[in-house]
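A reminder from the course coordinator: this example appears on the midterm review sheet, so study it carefully.

Given structure:
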């Protein structure tokens, strides 16, 4: 460990003061910069709400094991949000095959350390460093420290998911295994409005999207953007009904509790956007988004009535409208979904880094990941070639 710095594990996020956490780069609006824009998922408000609402706790299989780096005065100068897990659910980077293979060979894959934001497939810094410190040096210390924590805990592995591009090299230098996947993001090229964006599409694609948007709002459906003081408990009740109905059918057991929404509505209302669809005087569908320094993050949606194309309108088209209206640089629309491509969302490579203690399992996974990275690269190239943009208008985002 670097002189005068120590690493410790904190199991309860409530024990970390909001003031000390807010000094970590990008975890608050005050600590944000052009290099590390504000990320609402890294905020104390969001992370504490997950644990206090019992969405992420020992019972749900997300036991806090946050890695804290402190100086000689006990001041928090770096951190990795981390959880001890006994399953691989709610992560969006799938390692079930690794677990099955290791356990068939007589190993014990669980528990493992998961360094991520629970239930949130959004890229963001995982090596958080306080302002005023050597960022790269401290991040290298954190990456090495996470390996030592993994060994001391006696767990099989540490998995750092949805890592930003600039942290990949730091983990690679520390001999973590590199995994890639893809998401679909909308990139704002300075469009004046949605029509200006549509003009960059091929004619046939542009006409199809205009027709889709008209069809989505048939049957008297209107759209509201709700944020800040609009987020009343009555609104959260309605949205939670949507979440439970759709989540129950899609995932079997939705991850987030009702109290989670009350807590974020209380602690970070200006960072939340609900896109709500109304028909005959009542809301029938909605999507929740989080507003970052330069990015709108789309998360989940739900509905109590099915209407053609309404999902696309609420989740994708309206998110673009909002991002353009607020001057945001991009929309991250969550995990997977090739259907987003036709709606102007381009394939983007995502990264995760993995430390595996057992040499045999590490070797097998490394061999698999080398082939998987090639497959992801080729697929992203293929998808980019079939984007809806006119030739020469847009290139793949890496």
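Designed residues:
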């Amino acid at each position: 460990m670097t002189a005068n710095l120590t690493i410790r594990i904190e199991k309860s996020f409530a024990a970390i003061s909001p003031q000390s956490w807010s000094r970590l780069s990008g975890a608050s609006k005050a600590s944000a910069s052009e290099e590390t824009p504000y990320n609402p998922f890294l905020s104390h408000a969001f992370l504490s709400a997950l644990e206090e609402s019992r969405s992420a706790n020992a019972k749900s299989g997300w036991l806090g094991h946050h890695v804290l780096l402190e100086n000689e005065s006990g001041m928090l100068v770096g951190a990795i949000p981390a959880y001890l897990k006994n399953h691989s659910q709610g992560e969006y980077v799938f390692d079930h095959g690794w677990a099955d293979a290791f356990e068939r060979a007589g190993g014990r894959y669980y528990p493992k350390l998961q360094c991520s934001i629970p239930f949130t497939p959004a890229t963001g810094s995982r090596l958080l460093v306080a302002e005023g410190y050597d960022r790269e040096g401290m991040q290298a210390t954190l990456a090495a420290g996470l390996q030592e924590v993994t060994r001391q805990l006696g767990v099989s592995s540490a998995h750092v998911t949805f890592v930003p591009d600039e942290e990949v090299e730091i983990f690679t230098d520390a001999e973590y295994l590199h995994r890639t996947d893809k998401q679909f993001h909308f990139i704002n090229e300075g469009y004046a409005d949605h029509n200006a964006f549509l003009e960059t599409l091929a004619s046939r694609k542009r006409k199809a999207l205009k027709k889709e948007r008209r069809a989505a709002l048939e049957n008297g459906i209107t759209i509201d953007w709700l944020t800040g003081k609009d987020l009343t408990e009555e609104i959260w009740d309605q949205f939670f009904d949507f979440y439970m109905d759709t989540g129950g059918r899609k995932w079997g057991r939705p991850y987030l509790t009702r109290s989670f929404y009350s807590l974020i509505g209380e602690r970070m209302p200006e960072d939340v956007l609900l896109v709500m669809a109304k028909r005959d005087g009542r809301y029938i569908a909605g999507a929740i988004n989080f507003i970052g320094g330069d990015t709108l993050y789309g998360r989940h949606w739900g509905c109590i009535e099915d209407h053609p194309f309404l999902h696309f309108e609420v989740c994708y088209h309206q998110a673009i409208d909002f991002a353009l209206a607020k001057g945001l640089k991009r929309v991250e629309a969550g995990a997977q979904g090739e259907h987003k491509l036709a709606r102007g969302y381009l394939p983007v490579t995502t990264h995760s880094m993995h430390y595996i203690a057992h040499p045999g399992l590490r070797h097998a996974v490394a061999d698999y990941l080398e082939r998987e990275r090639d497959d992801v690269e080729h697929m992203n190239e293929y998808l980019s070639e079939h984007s809806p943009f006119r030739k020469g208008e847009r290139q793949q985002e890496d």
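Residues 77 and 132 are 9 Å apart (CA to CA). The radius of gyration is 21 Å.
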